[in-house]
Amino acid sequence: MQAVHEDIDRVLFTEEDLRARVKDMGRQITADHEGESLLVVSVLRGAAIFMADLVREIDLPLEMDYMAISSYGNGVKSSGIVRILKDLTSSVEGRHVLIAEDILDSGLTLKYLIRNLESRNPASIEVATLLRKKTKAQADIDCRYVGFECPDEFIVGYGMDYAERYRNLPYIGVLKPEVYERAQ
Ligand code: PRP
Asked: Hey, which of 11, 12, 54, 100 would disulfide with 42, CB 3.0 to 4.6 Å?
């Protein structure tokens, strides 16, 4: 993956950092939900890697399910109005739902998702986000579990992409500006 690594300016979270933090999060979720079973939900595609690692650190009975959403018009980030391309397979009613997100940026994706899932009468909804970006304009989202706070930079890896690349990096890094400036 040498060509891919060369596009990274610096590493923010190493593979070891991620493994250790995800393990902690899983332990905490397990302790907080003793005696319960969970429906763990993520939104494709970025969160799939985090969710896959997180569920293996949760020692509870659980189900995994996925949604795919697409933005109307100006995009999820600017409008927050989204369309469901693939809905959950499982019923949410009466379930303890844990949303696994890779990153909370504007918060519009989570705001939409929480509102949508709340309307299906779950027993509870909680959010575990691996990263929370430090941005000024972020929707007020109640995240029970946050892996790391991260700077407001263009980050990729561990599920996060630029133009669908870099998702397979085992670490999270800042993309060199010339990579996306080149494309403009
Ligand atoms: C990313 C990420 C979150 C969302 C966060 O998804 O996976 O779901 O953006 O941004 P927000 O807080 O500003 O809403 P993206 O739309 O890039 O799609 P992807 O998961 O396919 O990469």
From this structure: 100
**Residue listed under structure tokens 């989204």:** 82
Q: Whose CA is closest to atom 3 on ligand 1?
A: 103
Amino acid at 31: A
Q: What are the residue boundaries of the structural domains of the chain, listed by start?
A: 16-152
User: What 8-state DSSP symbol labels residue 113?
Assistant: H
Residue 3, helix vs strand vs coil: helix
Helix, strand, or coil (residue 177): helix
What angle is formed at CA 36 by the lines to CA 35 and CA 40, rounded to 5 degrees? 145
The count of C-alpha atoms lying within 13 angstroms of the C-alpha of 9, restricted to the half-sphere facing its C-beta, is: 11
Distance 109 CA to ligand 1 centre (A): 7
Please tell me whether the overall predicted TM-score, pTM, comes out greater than 0.90 for this model: yes
Residue corresponding to tokens 């941005």: 135
Which one from 7, 65, 102, 105 is the annotated catalytic residue?
105
Residues 6+ apart with CB under 8 A from 15: 170, 171
Q: What is the CATH number of domain 16-152?
A: 3.40.50.2020
Q: Which atom of ligand 1 is nearest to the CA of 111?
A: 14
Please count the other Cβ atoms lying within 10 Å of the Cβ belonging to residue 30: 14
| Residue 129 near residue 114 (C-beta atoms within 8 A) | no
